[in-house]
């Protein structure tokens, strides 16, 4: 039997949602609003949110007048998201490495570092080719990733956090071209350890991957205010590409 990937275990765990329950929703929604204004998306445009998690950003997109579909590999996340569904918002469990609906969407979004999880470059490329396949001709793809240089310079090493009475011990380090986060804690008499691994992909890596996947890179932003990207000190790497 194949051992599950780290993201299959961790993202389906209730503890993932406990640890990250206090994320900055206002910053995220402000970014999405700014991005929508920049892209000048018409009302009713069909949008795919790849790796949508529990659907909070897909819901925000739908509330802006878009027709939104969210997909995610996590069964638990999609079960939660389905409670948000309405006429203009739907959710499905799906692996982003495979096309969801070919040539069905005007825009495909991949928000908040929901990429770089797979073991091989071939899988990364497969995921991007599938994103491209989901788009209509001339459609737009936005991939929001961390700036690898920025992250490496600011790794904290070790962090302790208490959420809902659970003491999380978090260690962060880089190894084999990835930033790795080990998350250990005890709860209800059991000890747990999970791991996050994200590839340290840079702008040059994405330029090659996007071109191979069938995209033309249009613009690169460096933060959630859509400032220009600077390799040394921009916190984000936000790529806007068009399907060839």
From TrEMBL:
CDD domains, per the entry: AdoMet_MTases (cd02440)
Domain Methyltransferase: 47-139
Family matches, as InterPro entries: Methyltransf_25, SAM-dependent_MTases_sf
A GO molecular-function annotation: methyltransferase activity
Alphabetical keyword list: Methyltransferase, Transferase
Superkingdom of source: Bacteria
A single BP term in Gene Ontology: methylation
Protein name stated in the entry: Methyltransferase domain-containing protein
Phylogenetic placement of the source organism: Bacteria, Pseudomonadati, Bacteroidota, Saprospiria, Saprospirales
